[in-house]
Design a protein that fits this description.
By secondary structure, the protein is of the alpha+beta class. About 45% of the residues lie in helices and about 15% in strands. The structure holds flavin mononucleotide (FMN). Flavin mononucleotide binds next to loops.
């Protein structure tokens, strides 16, 4: 798949088919994620990938994060109540995604910005690789509001949750949101 085509075609997917995703396919995608660049080459990312009963058991906890984002969401989309309704439904069931990826970093002595960007680079690799494999994802930071509960469930004590990524075969083809213009300044060309 052409890289530029993949970058532009990838969409955030919020409705998934129930079909299970073969483990080898998930492994291939996570392997590509780990080929991202990382600050000081620390590779201090960490991923937990759940499916089946383990995934089912976490859905309610992740969904409870909706209450934390609801006030801002209602404000930002005051003119678009359908977006608020859709987002609520998405958070509550994660679009039926059969796989959930929890993206963490192991803290270092430096400021957290480097680690967050390290994990973000890996997440973008993951999203593009999933797209190349015919899968869809949605990068979500909303669930970080309930990181303590998620960590307790997963038994994680010494890592920082950056994002949750539902993954599965897409059951929708959302249109591409327009990209903002004038976001780059070129000088000296
Ligand atoms: C850092 C980050 C956090 C995001 N958090 C959420 C989220 O909590 N819930 C959600 O539905 N989408 C979330 N998104 C997805 C964005 O809404 C989406 O990328 C944006 O609307 C552009 O759409 P596209 O991904 O289809 O190009 C997040 C994306 C990024 C990069």
């Amino acid at each position: 798949m052409d890289l530029y085509k993949a970058i532009k075609e990838r969409r955030s997917i919020r409705r998934f088919k129930a079909d299970p995703v073969p483990k080898e396919r998930v492994e291939k995608i996570l392997e590509a994620a780990l080929w991202a660049p990382s600050g000081m080459n620390r590779q201090n990312w960490f991923f937990v990938v759940l499916t089946g009963e383990r995934r089912d058991a976490l859905i309610d906890i992740v969904g409870s994060s909706y209450e934390h984002i609801a006030p801002v969401l209602r404000e930002v989309f005051a003119e678009k109540p359908k977006v608020v309704d859709f987002t609520k439904r998405f958070f509550k069931g994660l679009g039926g995604a059969p796989v959930l990826v929890f993206a963490y970093y192991e803290p270092t002595k430096e400021r957290p910005e480097t680690s967050i960007q390290t994990v973000a680079a890996a997440i973008q690799n993951l999203l593009l690789s999933a797209h190349a494999e015919g899968l869809g994802c949605c990068w979500m930071t909303g669930p970080v509001h309930v990181a303590d509960r998620i960590n307790r469930f997963l038994g994680i004590e010494d890592k920082t949750l950056v994002a949750v990524i539902p993954m599965g075969y897409p059951d929708e083809s959302p249109p591409a949101p327009q990209r903002r213009t004038n976001r780059v300044v070129y000088e000296g060309f």
